[in-house]
Write a structure and sequence with these properties.
The structure is a homodimer. By secondary structure, chain A is mainly alpha-helical. Chain A has 3 domains: about 110 residues, Alpha Horseshoe (MgtE N-terminal fold), CATH 1.25.60; about 110 residues, CBS-domain; about 180 residues, SLC41 divalent cation transporters, integral membrane domain (Tetracycline Repressor, domain 2), CATH 1.10.357.20. Chain A is built from 22 helices and 6 strands. In chain A, the strands form 2 sheets. Chain A has a 3-stranded mixed sheet. The first copy, chain A, has a 3-stranded mixed sheet with strand order 4-5-6. In chain A, helix 21 packs antiparallel against helix 22. Chains A and B meet through helix 11, helix 12, helix 14, helix 15 and helix 16 of A and helix 11, helix 12, helix 14, helix 15 and helix 16 of B.
Chain lengths: ~425, ~425
């Protein structure tokens, strides 16, 4: 494709969708990319850079292999939320170099965006939106849109502000098309505008966009001034990122980068495994402490993995439900007390029924009712405790301001191994005379 | 709000966003809802019914409490993908009753949609799109849009078809606004249209919409005729549903409905727990089989939970990665052989390093090098096998046409308990003379 026929290539390349352009670009080697930089201007590059994932590890290298001014122009041409996302992942000196090569107003705009916490509305919003005065007519607004269309990330929503930049209404391009040209915007705009604050968490923002089926959501600052918008494609990224982080948490491994080599995979999984190995060692130490009990009744060893395994499963279930509930946002959270009480009740019900089942099975299998009772009782108690740990630990972490998803599944199961073993041997010690009598 | 002042209420209610109207409606009791049915016409009800979740359990009751013709008109007024989604969850006689009360063409349209598999592009698409002839001018297209705006789910993309309904191009409303009225659509349309087939899986469709940042994606049938579109809000639902089902699978519990009572929660979790209890019983039986070994060296019991727990954690990690990789769609899947080889290597590396760690710890703790070696070896083998099970089982289920996410985390950990114990005692039996000598 790239053997000298620049014109043919340019036409073919620019006819592709931006996403396909980006995929093509990412498949090239450096020499080929250098050719591309000569053939395409920064504006044409910026168009498809908007579709590249911002946390691409090689992004910094890609920008460095371009002439600095070319890279700065490219970043400047991108929608500024995407440019800010890329800058966020670059070393500080690179950020300053590129910003210094941009025009003052653009650099100031980008610096402002970089200032917001990445996981808030301010961190994901773009300032490339269209805002007009509500005094205009539909025809004037359409003419204005025509002028601003090239710069704006979306022109499907037009935000109407007063002289102080306060948001007074919104009108969709659909409404503009449907109404007559001489109609005043103020007469047809929606005054009941759903907004979000720059400080709102990105997950809540994404949920709002999803609930209302919006294409974009306006962002206001503390003075209720319109400062940006968040578009639906950013909301999708957020929903996917949050789901992926909940999922990674539950598994105790970062699943985001799945196409890597086996040694890198192993190095990602090992830290958790080794950490939990030490927690598991305390369980081993605990069992060791009961060795005399075990040598007296080696039958007890038979049920260790049954009890720890089942309690671990129950703990994982309640952990998953708790993390999901916390992720759903504040308005859907029931009161703490009700939640705790509910979890205790769920744990007790699950524990008692599973305990009774195992009591009957063991009682029949070993023809030893007291042994069955011991195992059943230990199982019921272990499940109840594991359920509680699975639901209370993420809630506690959330209260303390940590991400509840870091209380991972493997952590809960390993912790529940410890409590289950403690419960099991305490109960066994109590009943040992009865079942080995 | 609702005490007789119908006019005031109507104005207030209709000023709210559809989503807020729906939330208000769902908060009413039946008597209040009956009042609402008298105050609002089916068209006004349909507007906000579009925002209600289609799998709401009480949907069937809500529709039954309306006059049948009113319910039919309401469904008819909704975007037809949403109406079809609701009908899918209703009993057959209700579906037929409502369809018979609609106009013939509308009923036929809906029946067609109901015919598609719910998890495919056909199952989530809407037929409420705008398609025009490419021979029109921009001005004519805008006039046409004005007429069709009320019916269409989105007018931001206009699809251009030939006489046979074959898709020849697409143009965005943005392009229409920017270009002059007398320009021919054929001269400014995008001819390289990204489409999806009615049979494509919904997850792949959502991924496409996400990659390309589309607001809507056209759906074509086997003859390449345009039959529907899928809008970005449906893509969000799909992405969220798929993430939620992967997550539920990993936890072995359906986390979708989190605001329920403790007894219902318990009844949802118990089937899995009890099923896995029986699988866990086979592990217990296996340990029981080795009871003579255990009574000879009760120290072996100390490390059962350490080995099963750590192997279970490793299995959960590789399960999560495998399920995620399968969810990413076909184009990103590396070749099967490479995958299996990669997973084996990851398993071996993780297993060997963890095994060495535990060997050293146990060797020092118990001042028994041979015991350390036994535990370390068992640990390394158990982790390797658990890793393989965690990655191969979901891949196998995918090949066999099952949803890989149903190979749940608890299932993998319980299965890995069994293999770990088998490995552990086999190795221990081999070395027993060496460490208790």
């Amino acid at each position: 494709l790239e053997n000298g026929e620049t014109k043919v290539f340019r036409k073919r390349f620019l006819d592709m969708h931006f996403y396909d352009q980006a995929q093509f670009y990412l498949s090239l080697d450096e020499a080929q990319r250098q050719k591309l930089y000569r053939v395409l201007n920064p504006h044409e590059m910026g168009d498809f850079f908007d579709t590249i994932e911002d946390d691409l590890p090689q992004m910094s290298d890609l920008l460095r292999e371009m002439a600095p001014q070319y890279a700065a122009d490219l970043l400047n041409d991108m929608f500024d939320d995407n440019a800010a996302d890329i800058l966020e992942h670059l070393p500080k000196e690179d950020v300053n170099r590129y910003l210094s090569l941009m025009s003052k107003p653009d650099a100031i705009e980008l610096r402002k965006l970089l200032h917001y916490d990445t996981e808030t509305a301010g961190g994901i919003m773009t300032t490339d939106f269209v805002s007009l005065s509500a005094d205009l007519s539909v025809g004037q607004a359409l003419a204005e849109l025509k002028r601003e269309a090239a710069e704006a990330e979306t022109i499907y929503y037009v935000y109407l502000v007063d002289a102080d930049q306060l948001l007074v209404g919104v009108i969709t391009l659909r409404d503009l098309i449907v109404n007559d040209n001489h109609t005043k915007l103020a007469d047809v705009m929606t005054v009941n505008v759903i907004t979000t604050s720059v400080h709102d968490e990105q997950a809540d923002v994404a949920q709002k966009i999803r609930d209302y089926n919006f294409i974009a959501l306006p962002v206001v600052d503390d003075d209720q001034k319109l400062v940006g918008i968040i578009t639906v494609d950013d909301a999708i990224e957020v929903i996917d990122d949050e789901a992926s982080s909940d999922y990674s948490g539950l598994a105790g491994v970062d699943v985001d980068d799945v196409s890597e080599n086996p040694f890198k995979s192993a190095s990602k999984r090992l830290p958790w495994l080794i950490t939990l190995l030490f927690l598991g060692m305390s369980t081993a130490t605990l069992i060791n402490h009961y060795e005399s009990l075990l040598s007296e009744a080696s039958i007890l060893a038979v049920f260790i993995s049954l009890i720890t395994g089942t309690a671990g499963n129950a703990g994982t279930q309640s952990l998953a439900v708790a993390v999901r509930r916390l992720a759903l946002g504040n308005d859907k959270k029931p009161r703490l007390f009700k939640l705790v009480f509910g979890e205790i009740l769920t744990g007790v019900v699950t524990g008692v029924i599973t305990g009774l089942t195992v009591m009957v099975i063991v009682g029949i299998w070993k023809q030893n009712l007291m042994l069955g009772l011991t195992i059943g009782l230990a199982m019921a108690a272990a499940i109840t405790v594991a359920n509680l740990a699975g639901s209370l630990i993420p809630m506690l972490m959330d209260k303390l301001g940590f991400d509840p998803a870091v209380a991972s599944g493997p952590f809960i199961t390993t912790l529940s191994d410890l409590t289950s073993v403690l419960i099991y041997f305490s109960i066994a010690q109590l009943f040992i005379r009865a079942f080995i009598g």
